[in-house]
Amino acid sequence: MQNLGAVNFDHPDIFDWELLKQTLQKLKNGENVIIPDYDYKTCKRRELGIELKWSPLVLFEGIFALLDKEINTQFLDFKIYV
User: Is the pTM value of this prediction over 0.85?
Assistant: First the structure.
C-alpha cells in the first residue's frame, strides 16, 4: 500500500488503451465482454470483472473518450462533445 494515493487517475497514461481497443472491437463484433473492475481501496483490479452484454448502442464516455485517434476513427460512429 506504499503507492496509495500516488496514482493520478486524471492522466491518460492510467488507461490500458490496448485492452480498451480490444474490448471495443469485441463489442463492435457483437460479443459480450468482461471489463475490469478497479478497487480504489487496494489500487488494483479485482479478480472478477464486470460482464457487459452486447447492445446495438454502446455509450463510451469519459474525460479522454475522444483522445485516441484510432478509437475515434475505428470504433465511434458518432461523437458528441459537451
Answer: no
